[in-house]
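Standup notes, structure subgroup. Blocker cleared on the zinc ion input:
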Amino acid sequence: MRVLGLESSCDETAAAIVVDGTTVLADVVASQHEVHAKYGGVVPELASRAHILNVVPVVQAALDRAGTKLADLDGIAVTNAPGLVGALLVGLQTAKSLAWVTGKPLVGVHHLEGHLSAVYLEPDPPPMPHLALIVSGGHTSLVRVNAHADVIELGGTRDDAAGEAFDKGAKLLGLGYPGGVVIDRLAKTGDPKAVKFPLAMTTRDTGAEFSFSGLKTALLHHVRKHGVPDGQALSDLCASYQWSIVESLVRKTRRIARREGLAHLQVCGGVAANSGLRASIRAAGEEDGFRVYIPPPHRCTDNAAMIAAAGYHRLVRGERAGLDLDAVPSLPLPRRSA
Ligand code: KG4
Ligand code: ZN
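Run returned:
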């Protein structure tokens, strides 16, 4: 089954063609980072406009690279929730128009279900059920994955997402947008013990909840007191800040893996591209005896191959969306009742 995936929920316009939810024929991503860089974050209206300019060329490029015609497709999957509503609408309208003119089946995909499906594009994906740590610019959640499209959120962040903590920290340090990747690079040559930052919600039993706003404030106080350093001191500050984010994520994740009795963990979303997190969670898995699965970095950040993979599982179950499929800016995953 050859599925066209479309993704436009934030600042990446992406189209991909994936066979049977596992084999990627084409995976095209047009990033808008340059559009938003000077504002230090995503400007929703500018994102919508850039999606409009990019979406048709990106779909065309995906079809060309896959050597596929619209007529060869077996279905179209599109992110319809959650995200910036104007941005979502561009991908959604494109997907609906294509479904209408070709008569191909259409399905809507939850963006986080997409992130959870990226690892199924790899040769050795995790079995069900497993635990998932989703860490992106908009979300930080621990999720129990029972089956494709059957997930329960065990807990999430009370305030900022992990990616937001990276991006806001980087903005404060004048490192540009998106800052996660810059902090990651500088942290590699820094001393993570140089500056002591808080590890929120890791000492008491706070279930599967996270908090990163205190860390951001601690960085602000540090910078107000000492200024923004450069050279080695900047690398040390980035390494310490990153260590605090990673350590909070890892401590909480290993505790919940134990509590849930799950021996397989996947980590996904843009922050899963972070080299510090990848190394620490793998080391924790080896110590505690759970197996860790992380997609390659380019499939951690937003892409449409993961949307096509998630859509495939809905299509094979016979799910079909009508042309009234709507964009939903905020749509939490189902939560386990207390
Ligand atoms: O999944 P994603 O591409 O978009 C959302 O769904 O939000 O995640 C984007 C986030 C941004 O906050 C970005 O700074 C962060 O992922 N990110 C990283 C790295 N690469 C991307 N954070 C830390 N280290 C990285 N290497
Ligand atoms: Zn994402």
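Discussed briefly. The beta strands are 2-7, 12-19, 23-31, 75-81, 106-110, 130-135, 140-147, 150-156, 264-268, 291-293.
Next: hand off to the docking folks.
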